[in-house]
């Protein structure tokens, strides 16, 4: 299934992992792959499309591109939440989207973006 370009995603079996599938996304390298925000958003959109096509009930995302690819965490969290919100009305199988984050700072940034993009009613 490789190679893929920034913003693309592919789905594979999970093999010995406790889930059904693994969706592999190639996020943009910040400052190199442009337009970075669009490529990052496309990772989330493509992953959700693949999950929907596979009739998965849930998806778990890391903070794509924020590690060695250098994407600023606050900006990446905002892009991620906006992409999920844009896709949400079309999702039928996927009922839960999780963000599985590395540290308290990543959690805080994603919580702040979540409150901005999905304000409490």
Describe this structure as you would to a colleague.
This protein is of the alpha+beta class. It has three helices and four strands; from the N terminus they run ββαβαβα. It has helices at 36-53, 73-87, 104-117; strands at residues 9-13, 21-25, 58-61, 96-99. The strands form two sheets. Strands 1-2 form a two-stranded antiparallel sheet. The mean pLDDT is 96.
N-to-C series of helices and strands: EEHEHEH
Distance between the termini: 42 Å
Q: Uncertain spans, ≥5 residues at pLDDT below 50? A: none
Note the overall shape: globular
Q: Strands, helices and their partners?
A:
Elements: E1 9-13, E2 21-25, H1 36-53, E3 58-61, H2 73-87, E4 96-99, H3 104-117
Parallel strand pairs: 3-4
Antiparallel strand pairs: 1-2
Short description:
By secondary structure, the chain is of the alpha+beta class. The protein has 3 helices and 4 strands; from the N terminus they run E-E-H-E-H-E-H. It has helices spanning 36-53, 73-87, 104-117, and strands spanning 9-13, 21-25, 58-61, 96-99.
For the structure shown, list the relevant keywords.
121 residues; alpha+beta; two-stranded antiparallel ribbon; 3 helices; 39% helix
